[in-house]
Amino acid sequence: MFRTNTAHQQTSLLGVHQLLPNSRRRKLENSREALFYELIFKNIPEGIFAVLYSEEGSRPNSPVNRHVGAEILRESKGWTYEELFDHVDFDLKTRYALGMEDIGEKAFCSATHFYFLERLVKHERETGENLMEAVFDRLTQHQLEQLQLKTGIQRMDSFQAMSNIRHYTRLRLVIEVLQRFWRVLSEKERKPWADRVAEYIEAESGRILYRMSSEDYEKALQELGLIYRDLHEAFEESYAEAEVFKIFERVYYEQFAIVKEQVKVRDDQDIDSGSLQSPDDPEATYRHKQGNDYTGQAVHVMETCDPENDLQLVDDVFVEANNIDDSEALNERLKEQSEKYDGVEELHVDGGYPSEDNDTLLKTMKIDMVQTGIRGRPPGVRMIMTCLGEETYEVSCPQQTVISTPTRSRHKAVFDSLICEECSLKSVCPTLCQKQGAVYYFSEADVLRNERLRRLEALPKKRQTLRPNVEATVKEFYKPLNHKGKLRVRGRFKTELFAVCGAIGINLGRIHRYLVKKGTGEGILTTLKQEMNRIPTMSRVLAGLLSIFTKNLSKNRKWSYTG
């Protein structure tokens, strides 16, 4: 049975922090943990977690806001679970952040916390909804509104979140998965196969490889392909629903192929980057980028960057497979979560995010994409295309301007070759010498790319360099990672948890630093209230009513509010 936790709203005169000396109490009340309680813990929407619990009369749930708050603290500070439980039990600041004043009160037991996380995972798998992401959205929207931050100008970047898994060579992966499947078989099921697989199960997979010569490698793979085929045929029916068999089957199909009823080892180039990288993280994918190998997921971050804001906050974060191009990841996000981009007018990105599909989609959403990094080598001569009408463009180079004509699949502009011969830039010109003159071919994608470049150049200088600062935000996300740049966890859901909770922690840190800097000696919570009260009371009421009105409409709307 679900119930909310409101006990923290009743201040105790005998609470531990009330018994502290005045100087230490003021220090506690000006801490980041005090701001955590005020901005995050008190605003956690517990009601959305009711779906995780039974509606029938039963024992009440452990306080949800404590579980959510504790998970945010753990991820943002990079604690292990053992460190989290230790802080929750004995650290005064952590207990204050989670609304606990009585030193003898127990927040929750470790088992209950893990059961809560299991419910979150199960809910996402069944419904596709990540409730922690919903918490992030609610908290961030509240902070943006209360601090009156403008969200019309945004910037994006991505980074590799490497899964905490062992690196497997191809042969070691095949042996490891075979060993794991072998462990679940009964003695009776093993008996007919024992002699045949003995060589590959007698020791840890790494030791087996250590004893092999390079000549044995291909021979072992071929033999394992036959073993996989025969085991798959023998146990497909009885173990079809077992998770370990699903991984075994996946490796069989990804690493081997049946050609004319014979098992063939797939060539390395035929193995997809989305193939299984480790049996401990079936969702991890592989990517080679800028000379480095990454196995895990990619995290995409968007934050406000309006120069008029006193501070900038992360307001969107999402996780995708790392073998998906950034442009594809953005396109999927825009389609699935378009409401998050309502009110965005200008999006600053690097060269990885633009594409023809994104340009078209953003145009319908009335968002201007500003690209600050260009893929590929820039042309020696800049061509400027201006649309004059359907299928017609004015094309200009430094020496002349002509009108294009459409071809079967693209457009062409024919320049006067006599003028081109006298041009000092002819050695780097992208035109082709043909009978009709110097011809320049271009596509719709070239036109859109040209528009992005011109859009950047048309901006005021201080807005042309907004995007690079998001790289500092990415570095903040990297702080909790280990010395190898890996997460402490495995799997997509836990990566999402890391990203969402990390973003909440980053925003909190920025707000805390802002309030400390802006404070007048009266304390950060007083400064926070002053910041929130800068809008006249009636304006806040009208803004709240308008927000409720638009949210209700959005549930069943057939049109999009962009006011």
The CATH class designation of the largest domain is Alpha Beta
Q: What is the rounded Rg?
A: 29 Å
- What level of helicity do the residues show? 40-55%
CATH architectural group of the largest domain: 2-Layer Sandwich
- CATH superfamily grouping of the largest domain: Ribonuclease H-like superfamily/Ribonuclease H
Biggest sheet overview: 6 strands, mixed
What general form does the structure show? Answer: flat
Number of helices: 22
Structural domains: how many: 4
How does the helix and strand content classify structurally? alpha+beta
CATH topology heading of the largest domain: Nucleotidyltransferase, domain 5
Strand content: 5-15%
How are the elements arranged and paired?
Blueprint: H1 22-29, H2 32-39, H3 64-77, H4 81-90, H5 92-97, H6 110-127, H7 131-146, E1 153-162, H8 170-184, H9 187-190, H10 194-201, H11 205-210, H12 214-235, H13 243-255, E2 256-259, E3 262-265, E4 285-289, E5 292-304, E6 314-321, H14 326-336, E7 346-349, H15 356-364, E8 368-371, E9 384-389, E10 392-396, E11 401-403, E12 405-406, E13 411-415, H16 417-421, E14 432-434, E15 437-442, H17 444-458, H18 461-464, H19 470-478, H20 492-518, H21 524-532, H22 537-556
Helix pairs in contact: 3-4, 3-20, 7-20, 8-12, 8-13, 12-13, 14-15, 20-21
